[in-house]
Amino acid sequence: MRDDRSLESSSVSDSGAHDFATHLRWFLHGTSRIFSVPAILLMSSFVGFAGLAIESGMTMVQTVFMTLVIWALPAKVVLIGAATSGATLPAAALSVALSSVRLMPMVVSLLPELKGPRTSRVTLLFLSHFVAVTAWVMAMEEMHAIPRNLRTSYFAGVGMVLVGTNALVVVAVYLLSASFPPIVFAALFMLTPMYFLTSLWRSARERAGQVAMIAGLVLFPVFHRLAPGYDLLLTGVIGGAGAFIFHRIDRNRLEAK
Within 13 A of 219's CA, how many CA atoms are on the CB side? Predict the structure, then answer.
């Protein structure tokens, strides 16, 4: 009897060690994505972001803190703009929140893919902090090839290494800021938006997504000239509504055939 219990205990222990090793392997696979083109472009953009923060008078501690707790790069730029313009704290918080609402569809589409049979809500809530365009694109590219019970480990590796590495990039730029002319910061800062645009265009499953991107590129300069304070909001509402109408018309046309 004692021998049977000993063997059962040993089996459970070996199974736990095997599970840990498997999760660790997928976590490390996620961290290895730091050497991919999207991650390198994102790090380049954080060089530009750090340059913007330096020019705006932000300290290194403040900028690193923003990098760690406000993951989406545009939201950090919005916060710096609000701070330098003298906006109140509630106004700055509202601006950042509105900027981050655009990530909600990514969270809604990704978290069900991450959820496994025993995944807790706390784990999903923690991982949702890392959802931004780069991490979302990386995850969706490989998610179908990863066992469902190991997806949280993989995405944790992706998100944590991106956040941690970009925090180190910010520190390095502050320490070496005298070596970078402002034009270099500006050029690097533009790399990520260009990558995002080309990636989203390529990954669009329906033509309506591409119509929405074209509408944004056309409408934003117009509204920036006509209503500078509401340019992004108007572009999103009108461009998105136009893309939705196009989607309905296109779908009805295909169903009629």
Answer: 20
The radius of gyration of the chain from alpha carbons, rounded to an integer in Å, stands at 22
Q: Is there a contact between 57 and 84 (Cβ–Cβ < 8 Å)?
A: yes
Measured in whole angstroms, the distance separating CA 236 from the mean position of its chain's CA atoms is 19
Residue 189 token pair: 């800062």
What is the sign of the dihedral through the CA atoms of 65, 186, 181 and 164? positive
Q: How far apart are alpha carbons 25 and 20 in whole angstroms?
A: 9
Return d(Cα 49, Cα 163) in angstroms, integer.
14
CB atoms within 10 A of CB 73: 23
CB contact set of 202 (below 8 Å; sequence gap of 6+): none
How many H-runs (helices) and E-runs (strands) does the chain carry?
13, 0
3-state secondary structure of 120: coil
**86 in the Ramachandran plot: left (φ > 0), alpha (ψ -120 to 50) or beta?**
left
* Residue 57 falls in which region: left (phi positive, over 0), alpha (psi -120 to 50) or beta: left
Contacts of 70 (CB under 8 A, 6+ apart): 76, 79, 96
pLDDT in tens, 51-92: 888 888 889 999 999 999 887 787 888 888 778 877 788 878
Q: Among candidates 127, 147, 159, 161, which has minimal Cα distance to 19? A: 147
pTM of the model: 0.70
| Model confidence at 162: pLDDT above 90 | yes
What are the tokens at 6? 């000993």
